[in-house]
Amino acid sequence: MNPKDDHYYIDQVKNGKLSAFSYLVEKYRDMVYGLSLKMLKNTEDAEELAQDTFVKAFQSIGTYRGSSKFSTWLYRIAYNGAITQLRKRKVELYSLDEQRLSDQDELDIANRLTEIDQEALAGSLKKAMATLPADDQVLITLFYYEDQRVEDIAQITGLSESNVKVKIHRARKKMYSFLKENLEEAVFNVL
Amino acid sequence: MKQIDQNFKELMKSYQPEKSPGDFTVNVMNRIYAETNRISEYKPVLNKWFLRIVYAIIGGFVGYSMFNTGTESASPGGSKFFSWLPKVDLSAAADAGDKITGVLGGLPQYVVVIFLSATFLLLLDQWILRRKQVL
Lengths: 191, 135
What we know:
heterodimer; B: 6 helices
């Protein structure tokens, strides 16, 4: 066992060494903050929610049994906190336009995107991400960027696994649609 | 994993997620330390009302013992001054006091030491509480 994995630090915190928790905060801070920001769309609220998430995680670390990954457990706390906040604000979470792109279209776009420079690609991805509803942004980030499994995402969001798969599929298509348009505009501008 | 997912995963490696503020970890840890201190905040063993009653009983007993000893007043003038007041019959209380004194006088020395130590700890308890409140 790697002595420096999450469980090593979790055990230390459980044994009363509070400072060990800072390792976990440091490791997951950006992800929890990013998730909060995607959901709440406001940096101050996102920071507060992200801090609350870690404080809650610390308070209930005694109940964490290790049956799921620590990150899954942590993201679930953050996600639930965001949902509670959004319900208070009465924001509509779930809206999605289905895009009509075939799998082959997606592969073609992906190939073309690999040819553009990294900075432009990063910018396009950010813009494409912004076109998605908050919950879809979270799903895409968890699955494609954070490498979380569908089962874990289902646990975090409280959705069924099949629902997670469908939503990821649709959100990815929507992002590809945006990227395709963006790419065509860029080519048009060059010409 | 499907090829299409793999491709998108490759693309997403270029994605730059939002960064948390620089002092984020410090802020979280400060909140956690504050939370931990709040949980372990010092609380006196006995509440202040209970202690006030104990002090009143002890004070009353000491006062009674001081003023009910001896047959002559230390200040005859004062005695004359109060001589017009109706006399209260405290013989029953005096008997009770004598009995208590007798019981206390018969206590073994180690019991007295325990009693005094407990009193000292209670006073220390109050003193620490006051210092905590000042800080």
